[in-house]
């Protein structure tokens, strides 16, 4: 008997470079399909990336997301089994965590618990890493709960931070780790290997 299909929804707020890497990684996967991309930003370039890669894409408002309604309905209609956050900046509401217990994953561009929490995203994280004089940084892939960046850690990847590295150079190192590891961790997590 074959295993049921794993259907992923990717939630994005911005450009969507991680989303594109994830979509491409699973394009011909025998069990896992990126079935939907959702964004809280109707101008997000991620929506265009998804359409170009033939993945259905929709934008939603804060009202759609806060209250149990449109977003959950779309996820159910598309038979979504797992949710992947890829640069999604809003806190996940309790109703979604209840509907998808331990089936929502996020990637954070630092080694949690350092440099996490509300307001710590993108360039702000890399600037904080530089300002703190850290000698290493990286990524943390974790399950999502009702608090920013506090779910159980599944994976951390590391890279060195040299004295002369700018926040932009730190960001490039971290993005390389994201693209290298996030799809593989998603694959192992969704198939029950971790």
UniProtKB/TrEMBL annotation:
The gene is purN. GO terms for cellular component: cytosol. Belongs to the GART family. It comes from Chryseosolibacter histidini. The record marks 149 as: Raises pKa of active site His. It catalyses: N(1)-(5-phospho-beta-D-ribosyl)glycinamide + (6R)-10-formyltetrahydrofolate = N(2)-formyl-N(1)-(5-phospho-beta-D-ribosyl)glycinamide + (6S)-5,6,7,8-tetrahydrofolate + H(+). Keywords: Purine biosynthesis, Transferase. The active site is at 108 (proton donor). It comes from the Bacteria. HAMAP family: PurN. Pathway: Purine metabolism; IMP biosynthesis via de novo pathway; N(2)-formyl-N(1)-(5-phospho-D-ribosyl)glycinamide from N(1)-(5-phospho-D-ribosyl)glycinamide (10-formyl THF route): step 1/1. PANTHER family: PHOSPHORIBOSYLGLYCINAMIDE FORMYLTRANSFERASE. GO terms for biological process: 'de novo' IMP biosynthetic process. PROSITE patterns: GART (PS00373). This is Phosphoribosylglycinamide formyltransferase. GO terms for molecular function: phosphoribosylglycinamide formyltransferase activity. Catalyzes the transfer of a formyl group from 10-formyltetrahydrofolate to 5-phospho-ribosyl-glycinamide (GAR), producing 5-phospho-ribosyl-N-formylglycinamide (FGAR) and tetrahydrofolate. N(1)-(5-phospho-beta-D-ribosyl)glycinamide binds at residues 16-18. (6R)-10-formyltetrahydrofolate binds at residues 62, 106. Residues 7-186 form the Formyl transferase N-terminal domain. Its EC number is 2.1.2.2.
